[in-house]
Amino acid sequence: MTNRTFTMIKPDAVENGHIGSILEKINSSGFKIIAMKFTKLSLEKAENFYEVHSDRPFFNELVTFMSRGPIVAAILEKNNAVEDFRLLIGSTNPSDAKEGTIRNLFATSMGENAVHGSDSDENAMIEGAFHFSNEEILS
Ligand code: CMP
Fold first, then answer.
1. How many domains does the chain have?
2. Is the minimum distance from the CB of 92 to ligand 1 under 6 angstroms?
3. Which of 21, 28, 119, 120 is the least crowded, having the fewest Cβ atoms under 10 Å away?
4. pLDDT at residue 100 tops 60
């Protein structure tokens, strides 16, 4: 799985009409989309996905935000996918994100930061399996 990562285009970026621009950045940066869906998380599903953050003070804000509107979930393939995708999206806080990164271009705040990218190969596998069955992954 070292060549795969998992991403979501978050509700803020969908609401602001950035799906196409973000997918274009992903494609032109050499990532191959091997699974993708336009969907909406229930509050319960968002709580499950972000369970690792359940003790953090921003947890309620995070799961309310992530369940407020549609998202795009995708599994991406590229050599060194996890690390390269995190470079492409930039820092969690968009005000720290380097110029040209997805969060620099499209995010508005630390909480509403346009995209998710897995932080390890292990989490990429867990997060991809959370959203997709094996039949939905077309590598
Ligand atoms: P992401 O890394 O995709 O997944 C965890 C999310 O929690 C992170 O993006 C941010 O959207 C959110 N987050 C992290 N830190 C904070 C914070 N201090 N305040 C609000 N949201 C945060």
1. 1
2. yes
3. 28
4. yes
Q: What is the 82 CA–ligand 1 centroid distance (Å)?
A: 17
Pocket lining: 16 vs ligand 1, CB cutoff 6 Å: no
Residue 122 lies inside a defined structural domain of this protein: yes
Ligand 1 close to Cβ of residue 62 (< 6 A): yes
> Residue 139's pLDDT is what?
84
Range(s) of the domain holding residue 121: 4-38+73-136
131 noted as active-site residue = no
Which helix (DSSP H) or strand (DSSP E) does residue 60 occupy? helix 59-66
The CA distance from 30 to 12, in Å, is 24
Q: Is the pLDDT of residue 1 over 70?
A: no
Residue 61 lies in a domain: no
